[in-house]
Amino acid sequence: MTGLDDNIFDDGAHEVRDDRDGGPHPTRAERRRGRRERGRRPPDAARGGGRRRGASCLAVLLAGALVLAAGWFALGSLRSLLPGWGESDDYAGPGSGKVEVVIDSGASGAVIGQTLQEADVVKTTSSFTAVARAEPEQAASIQPGTYVMRQKMSATDAFDRLLDPANRVAKGVTLREGLWRSEIYERLSEGTDVPVEEYEQAEESEELELPPQAEGEVEGWLFPSTYEFADDASAVQQMNTMISQTVSQLEEAGVPKDEWERTLTVASIVEGEAGAADRRKVARVVENRLDDPAGPTRGMLQMDSTVHYLLQKRGTITTSDKERNTDSPYNTYTNQGLPPGPINNPGAAAIDAAGNPAEGDWLFFVTVDPSTGETKFAETQAEHERNVQEFCRNTGSCE
Predict the structure, then answer these.
(1) How far is Cα 365 from Cα 258, in angstroms, rounded to an integer?
(2) Alpha carbons 26 and 180: distance in angstroms, whole number
(3) Quick check: pTM over 0.70?
(4) Polar residues composition bias: which ranges (predicted)?
(5) 86: Cβ–Cβ under 8 A, 6 or more apart, which residues?
(6) Fewer Cβ close by (within 10 Å): the C or N end of the chain?
(7) Is 336 within 8 Å of 293 (Cβ atoms)?
(8) How far apart are CA 228 and CA 233, in angstroms?
């Protein structure tokens, strides 16, 4: 076994020996130094590589910064083209100051919102419509008229203010359901100072926008509501506004155009007869009587409201034998079928009832207690007679 060579501990002081081909051999110390030097990175090379990597990182950072700067600049340009971008579409708080706003009859939530936005009550139409859609029943209860509002209100505060009657200024003309056109003209004249004669003359005006189905007759087409007309609105303009509301109600009730006049006639009878009764049931009674010419009423409606109309008589819910024998096509005690046209100007509930009657076989109804409006419906004559006797006991008017 060969022992360890003492030369591995050599300090490098020996001379270099020649190798086999005569060349010099490095000493162990030199070989050790070579190995150590090969394991190190030359100082210059190391510094050069670091500079290259540093430069690359700096270039990437500079490029990223340029991209971010360009993006921010582009975003700023976009925001300048879209005013309000990123801002709330609603004002905060209850607002300040005072401004009067007119809510037109039949105005939708979007129309009301636009009106409020134009007066700077709310910031955007959409903020108001969002609140109205969240509470549809309350939104539907907003009445037409002039309201005292504040400017720069939150949509919720504006909505609540419209629901409070205390904020409504009574400037309009209110026309209740079931008025005759002559009564409407009188009330309009009182509220607008337009003479009654001008409304009567307007019936013949070529500018009057009556649908062809009306055949030139205004009765039934003047929709009852509260209206606020401009000070210079003519009689024709006022009547056209009311007529357009009636058309809207017929369309909303889903009534075909060729049924418009008939539906208004039925609706006017329902309006004149129902009182507090279920209007859809009253409409069904009308239709059932018309559909049964051989039934107990022999196809006659036998409605006191039609007799009141032909006599232009108010103040009673009944008629006398003499009145029921009046010779007129509007006398539904002596004529089968519907009267020639509407007998008043019905409201939305009556129009909807006439367009969509309840299902049932009722042929009779009577308000057994006028003080409460309690009304009873019957399918047979015998049942109806019992109800009539109850009416007599409650009113003492059958003696």
Answers:
(1) 29
(2) 132
(3) no
(4) 327-337
(5) 79
(6) N
(7) yes
(8) 10
Tokens 């418009």 sit at which residue?
Answer: 260
DSSP code of residue 258: G
Say if residues 130 and 116 touch (Cβ distance below 8 Å): no
One pLDDT digit (tens) per residue for the chain, 399 residues = 433 334 433 444 444 344 444 445 455 455 445 544 544 444 444 444 545 555 565 555 555 555 555 554 444 444 444 444 557 899 998 999 999 998 887 788 899 999 999 999 999 999 999 999 999 999 999 988 889 999 999 999 999 999 998 998 867 798 999 999 999 999 999 999 999 999 999 999 999 999 999 999 999 999 999 888 888 899 999 999 999 999 999 999 999 999 999 999 999 999 999 887 899 999 999 999 999 999 999 999 999 999 999 999 887 778 899 999 999 999 999 999 999 999 999 999 999 999 999 999 999 999 888 888 899 999 999 999 999 999 999 888 776
- Alpha-carbon span 285 to 274, nearest angstrom: 11
Q: Domain locations in the chain?
A: 96-169, 173-252, 257-395
- Give 143's DSSP letter: P
Q: Which parts of the chain are beta strand (E)?
A: 17-18, 24-25, 96-103, 145-151, 168-169, 173-174, 226-227, 364-369, 374-378
Q: 103 near 162, Cβ under 8 Å?
A: yes
Distances (CA, A) of 271 to 220, 276, 371, 397: 11, 10, 18, 23
SS3 call for 100: strand
Query: 96-169: what CATH class?
Result: alpha beta
Q: Checking DSSP bridges between strand 374-378 and strand 364-369, what pairing results, if any?
A: antiparallel
